[in-house]
Amino acid sequence: MIEAHKKVIVIGGGPAGMMAAGVAASRGLDVTLIEKNEQLGKKLFITGKGRCNITNIADIETHIQSVPVNGHFLYSAFYTFTNQDVISFFERFGVNTKQERGGRIFPISDKSSDVIRALEKYLSEHNVQIIQGMVHKINKQEDSVKGVVLKDGQTLPCDSVVIATGGLSYPQTGSTGDGYRFARNLGHTIAIIKPSLVPLEIKQKWVQSLQGLSLKNIAITVLNAKNKKVYDDFGEMIFTHYGISGPVVLSASSHMRNIDNEQYAVSIDLKPALTDKQLDIRIQRDFEKYIRKQFVNALNDLLPKKLIPVIIDLCDIPADKPVHQITKQERMQLIQLLKNLSMDVKGFRPIAEAIVTSGGISTNEIDPSTMASKIIKGLFFAGEIIDVDAYTGGYNLQIAFSTGYLAGMHV
Fold it and tell me: Could you give the CA distance from residue 284 to residue 307 in angstroms, rounded to a whole number?
């Protein structure tokens, strides 16, 4: 029988923290959730461009494989609170879902606010006390948690603490690394903190001239220094003043695991729906249409206007060359460029611009079946603060919900 007066404090009102608090309270525990923002789920609100990709329909083994760092650690979490459990949970609170490309699961409403509202209902249903405040430190006596001290000096005694403070990405949403400090002060090891799912800085200067250009239905391939393919995808991207961003680029970044010591190149196929031969036929048709014009004026049907000067410069065909004088060899050069617009990666953008944080509390110091600290009794972890991070597609939120659930079940 669980003692109703057992006090639990959850630090962090994101998806992992809200899940942990709700589950713990549903077991009859006295739960307080501390969130430093004026509202819960601030980062959750902006995920998936405000649409909130809550999970992925893929089987659990695929979920584990989609976590390139310490995926095996999540075996118990993913099998205890599955993607189907996540879908059922939200449907119970009136959030019906839909499946999109790549097995991604979204609310039918396309509103992340509906997901946050469902979690808030869950907390309210089980009488979770919510405090807006900042935690200064976690008190311990010998090797056990004893309470939490707020920035205003107030001490809240408790029997268990769940740290669910997120990572360092999107600091404007409250992810400022507080949890790492709490854990380090209690003797935990922090794996090196790095950005993941982050825009890329590119060496080539010509990308700057394309700033703001968005490309849809392109294919991306990432190659390492040995010219070995490490990732490919299809979708949307955007050029920026420093390089490239957008969904396919963010996904690609999470496969560049050793960015400081490894060289990577990104190749963009601007016309993935066409083979080289089909693209040649298409170009010849355009050239026939613009046979009396110069090369620079014959690409308007094929490419966005902003991209034309860059392509002309890179393919070495003079801009003023009459279309009828362009040789087959020059046409082949153009095709190769359109199918393989290559650029060299300089590095990642700062962690503040990343969607998730790579690194965090060492998984060697956490019990994977309970999310409990192996060092301090009564201390638990959930969500992004743990040294696990996944590819895009709903996998990172599944980590938050599954680890939050386990922590809530065992505090």
Answer: 19
Which pLDDT does position 1 carry in this prediction? 41
Which domain range does residue 164 map to? 7-194+358-410
The 3-state DSSP composition of the chain as helix, strand, coil percent (nearest 5) reads: 40, 25, 35
**Of 22, 259, 264, 31, whose CA–CA distance to 161 is shortest?**
31
DSSP 61-129: HHHHHT-TBTGGGGHHHHHHS-HHHHHHHHHHTT--EEEEGGGEEEETT--HHHHHHHHHHHHHHTT-E
CA 59, CA 70: separation in Å to the nearest integer? 18
Q: Give the integer Cα–Cα distance in Å for 222 and 256.
A: 9
Closest CA to 96 of 81, 80, 115: 115
For residues 47 and 135, state if they share a domain. yes
Torsion of CA 255, 260, 261, 263, to 10 degrees: 60
314 with 375, same domain: the answer is no
b/e per residue 130-145 (b: at least 16 CB within 10 A): bbeeebbbbbbeeeeb
pLDDT digits (tens, 9 = 90+) for 212-241: 999 999 999 999 989 999 999 999 999 999
Interval 98-143: pLDDT, tens: 999 889 999 999 999 999 999 999 999 999 999 999 999 999 999 9
The total number of structural domains in the chain stands at 2
Residue 86: CB partners within 8 Å, gap ≥ 6? Answer: 54, 55, 105, 398, 401, 402
One-letter amino acid at 251 equals: S
State which amino acid sits at residue 353: E
Domain-embedded: residue 220: no
Lowest mean pLDDT among 16-30, 307-321, 346-360: 346-360
**37 in the same domain as 124:** yes
**Cα separation of 177 and 181, whole Å?**
7
183 in a structural domain: yes
Identify whether residues 383 and 300 lie together within a single domain: no
Residues 44 and 180 both lie in one domain? yes
Same domain, 28 and 151: yes
> Which amino acid appears at position 242 of this protein?
Y
Confidence check: pLDDT of 173 > 90: no
131 and 56 in a common domain? yes
Asked, for residue 48, whether it belongs to a domain, the answer is yes
For residue 390, give the CATH number of its domain. Answer: 3.50.50.60
- Domain shared by 107 and 11, yes or no: yes
| Domain-embedded: residue 264 | no
